[in-house]
Design brief:
Order of helices and strands: EHE
Strand order of the largest sheet: 1-2
Number of strands: 2
Helix content: 25-40%
Strand content: 15-25%
Shape: flat
Radius of gyration: 14 Å
Structural class: alpha+beta
Number of helices: 1
Distance between the termini: 29 Å
Largest sheet: 2 strands, parallel
C-alpha cells in the first residue's frame, strides 16, 4: 500500500502568496521525511488559490 499526502493551496489573504507557498513546500519536505510515497497539490476552481502558469509540455507518446 502506498500513502500520498495531498494539499490544496488556498490563498485567503491571511499571509502573502510567498509565505503560503513556502508552507506548502515545507509540508512536502515533511511528508518526504515522514516516509510518504508522494505529495500532491489539489486544484479547484471554486476557492481562491495560488496559481502558477505552467508551460504545456507533451507527455511521452504524444499525449499532451
Amino acid at each position: 500500500m502506498r500513502f500520498l499526502l495531498i494539499t490544496l493551496i488556498v490563498h485567503n489573504g491571511d499571509r502573502s502568496p510567498t509565505e503560503r507557498l513556502r508552507e506548502v513546500v515545507d509540508n512536502a519536505v515533511l511528508a518526504e521525511e515522514l516516509g510518504f510515497d508522494g505529495f500532491g497539490v489539489f486544484q479547484t476552481e471554486i476557492a481562491p488559490v495560488l496559481r502558477a502558469e505552467i508551460p504545456s509540455r507533451p507527455f511521452p507518446g504524444g499525449v499532451s
